Amino acid sequence: MKDDNPRDSFPARLEDMCALAIKRGQPVYSAFLNDREQYEAEKLLGKRSGIDILFWGGNEVCMRRILRVSSPDMYAGSDFDDFPVYPVTLTFRKADRPGHRDFLGSFMALGIKRETVGDIFIGEGTAAVFCTGTARDMITGSITTVGRIGVSVSDGLTAQAKECIAPPKISEMTITVSSQRADCIVAGITGMSRERSAEFIRSGGFMQNYTECENVSRNVSEGDTLTLRGYGKFIVGGEPGLTHKGRLRITIKKYI
Fold this sequence. Notes:
Layout: H1 10-24, E1 28-33, H2 35-45, E2 52-56, E3 65-70, E4 86-91, H3 100-109, E5 117-122, E6 126-131, H4 133-142, E7 145-146, E8 149-150, E9 152-155, H5 159-163, E10 170-177, H6 182-190, H7 194-202, E11 206-208, E12 211-212, E13 225-228, E14 232-236, E15 241-242, E16 248-255
Antiparallel strand pairs: 1-3, 2-3, 4-6, 4-9, 5-6, 7-8, 10-16, 11-12, 11-13, 13-14, 14-16, 15-16
Helix pairs in contact: 6-7
């Protein structure tokens, strides 16, 4: 089906941001972007002449981030200070264990859009949420429960909230494969046979750099992000080494 409004596509919105930044002579900001959107933005705009881009989510470990588009000669404030990202602290009983879905469900129930909420870090009795100004006002003004758990909300980050902000946990594994083909890599990560891994890829279970890939012979390279349905997200490590039998030894990092 043809898109009735092609300007709604993500690449088109990026082009609109560039045009608006140049026209206004001021930085333009996106909503919070997920990993795939950030990858696409970097790919489309990262090397464009006359355009500077920067991502920020409120903390250096945040995964969901806002994109700033500006021109090289445009004053945009010191590094990240001008980004419309605001932290909020929610506190609750230490015995309670709310999850990300609980927080998002409560936010969405208020009419808060997903793209206005960045990363949510949950600790013991405390959660830190990064969001836009509009979402912050709605959360601080209206949230009293998360799921069935009572919470109190304060603007900014408390000392306890800062302690629960941590990078994602990553485990590391080494696989030995005959080549860097997608079916070989998937087989090495999952323990499937080459035949089963090829079927897995052709069925749409494999994404390379956030794009679905059904080509079993496509090469996987250092730095690629791989998403395997039912297995998780992985990053391909450094330059492959060789075993004494001439097979490739590749480091794979997995998000836990």
